[in-house]
């Protein structure tokens, strides 16, 4: 059975940061909810949950290019269809996961290898080699995900 909704990333005026809207294919209608401060073409993409009940994307708190915090402190979040984007749950971020020693400049990205995976993969994005973590897919419902190292960059 195919997906009945699609996520569309929209940007304007040569901006890199975008908004995501959800389109219902059978009714050809758009959800009234707009997910703001995303950059799916540059950071993290859009990843549907295996049951199609929502999606995971990377949220960018500060999108003002003149701010010293521009594109810092990103968070990989889960958005459930029908909910307000303001209620999105953070799954992976510097603030949410201090035990991982993430930096403000790190891009926090989560994805599935494919839709039948039993694990989430969290990637610390940025320039150069990356750290990767994993957690069972069913841990999405936990208050906080306990990420385990998959492999780490080696800096000497």
Automatic annotation (TrEMBL):
Residues 4-149 form the Peptidase S9A N-terminal domain. One of its GO terms (molecular function) is serine-type endopeptidase activity. Pfam families: Peptidase_S9_N. Coiled coil: none annotated. Transmembrane segments: none annotated. InterPro entries: Pept_S9A_N (IPR023302). It comes from the Bacteria. This is Peptidase S9A N-terminal domain-containing protein. It comes from Polaribacter filamentus.
């Amino acid at each position: 059975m195919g997906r009945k909704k699609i996520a569309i990333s929209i940007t304007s005026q040569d901006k890199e940061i975008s908004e995501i809207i959800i389109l219902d294919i059978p009714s050809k209608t758009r959800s009234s909810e707009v997910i703001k401060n995303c950059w799916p073409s540059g950071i993290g993409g859009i990843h549907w949950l295996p049951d199609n009940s929502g999606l995971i994307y990377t949220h960018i708190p500060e999108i003002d290019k003149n701010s010293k915090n521009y594109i810092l402190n990103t968070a990989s979040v889960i958005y459930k269809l029908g909910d307000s984007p303001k209620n999105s749950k953070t799954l992976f971020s510097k603030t949410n996961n201090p035990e991982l020693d993430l930096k403000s400049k790190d891009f926090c990205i989560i994805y599935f290898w494919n839709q039948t995976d039993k694990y989430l993969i969290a990637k610390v994005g940025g320039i150069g080699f990356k750290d990767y973590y994993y957690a069972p897919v069913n841990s999405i419902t936990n208050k906080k995900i306990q990420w385990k190292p998959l492999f780490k960059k080696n800096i000497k």
